[in-house]
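Before the break, one more example. Copy the sequence into your notebook; we will annotate it together after we see the structure.
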Amino acid sequence: MVRHRPGSSEVPDAVVIGAGHNGLVAANILADAGWSVLVLEAADHAGGAVHSAESVRSGFVTDLFSAFYPLGAASPVLSALELDRYGLSWSHAPSVLAHVLPDDRCALLCRDVAGTAASLDEFAAGDGDAWTELVAEFERIREPLLAALFRPFPPVLPAARLLHRLGTAGALRFARFATQPVRRFGDERFHGEGGPLLLAGNALHTDLPPEGAGSAIYGWLLAMLGQTVGFPVPAGGSGRLVDALVARLAARGGHLRLGSGVEKVLVTNNRAVGVRLVDGTTVRVGRAVLADSSAPDLYRSLVGVEHLPGRLVRDLDNFQWDAPTLKVNWALSGPIPWTAAAARGAGTVHVGVDMDGLTFYAASLAARRVPPQPFVLVGQMTTADPARSPAGTESVWAYTHLPEKLELGPAVIAAHVERIEQIMQRHAPGFGALVLDRQVQSPADLQHANPSLVGGATNSGTASLHQQLVFRPVPGLARAETVIDRLYLAGASAHPGGGVHGGPGHNAARAALGRESASGPARRRMLELAMGRIYAG
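Here is what the structure looks like once it is written out:
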């Protein structure tokens, strides 16, 4: 195929709206297939919520949004792109994750199974063996499970391989586990507090409470990935992952335009035919438009409700965002002096609450009340990657969640930042004296910096069971294809959801390529018939 040169008078095969990591993954896959690709990004930098900068203090690199990437390290999508050839390298902290209880006991997750087991045996004899058994179960199904997770829904072939590995009885037990609350799962597998806290704390990297249906599989997946691939960070900052994607795309003839926000997707006869930029420029497209945006933004703003079935518009009214995030970044003159010594070498630290505290924290969010005792997730970035700050110092962040639909004015934010710093001081006496500079990112600040982080939501929609699989982003739209022909949702509102792994971008690119295959028109007609039934009335 002859490549067109987007930016000239030629018409690109594909326009990708948004240069977040999912948009860049999609662009790379299309370029690999020989398509000419133009990526349009409104901001003055690529990456979306994968972005690092010396925003707190010169010489201290801060990941402003996402940071640790177990899903990225395990993702077959990112692995296939061979980003190490374009400058990406991973760095690990000595330990993966520490959960510090209110009494300063500490459950430690290491990449060495024996190390994790030894930590859990301190809570209850035999819990180390229970953890080792859990890891062995994961390893047995890891390959088909990850293949199923990152592929378009339904993942027929990976699911068949998974069922073969599990067997009939094992599949039934796995299905039960997949719907379990993480608190119940922890109670069934462990006797002490350590193992359940590692699982439940990881589940709360989403917005799933310990009693939430489906929270067990999220906590288990992140914990098992932490055990097997760790919680790595890109050496030099999260932006290095984006740099690698951009370099790879350029090497394949793809084009990226920064400062080029898209105002509208142009639709003719229910087909995407191009885009209009905010400056009025029109870009026509030959084959596909892919949007690395949230589902509500794509449908309501970029497409317009006049092009949508009424039932879909009503379903979008029920789209649920995940809880707002409050993040604090610090430049410290030295490492955090945790009283729990095991936490000092962990890249990620969970601090502030025990299991009941996790429940009370989640209940406060559900009741739309500011949690009086927040669950705080801390990232010790220099511990994970020495290049993040000068020797002997530490680049650190912490985040927690606040309730939806609550007025989060400056006084509320300031009071909650004080709570966070009090927790840090309580578990690391002398923390405050180490602070050289501080930056607060409120939910409003996060959205201002990246409009896709609506209300400070970082996962493009709740991870709750009612908005996953066939229900993500709304019932009936579990794939990248949309109700508009040749328009694809490539953002994290689409399956498989939030996290830095490239799954939504991969699925959107594969859907666009499939539309151009010999069977593409027939597949589209079948999809339109199915959508017609779903959105009738």
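Residues 1-8 have pLDDT under 50 and may be disordered. The chain is about 40% helix and 15% strand. Try to locate both features in your own notes.
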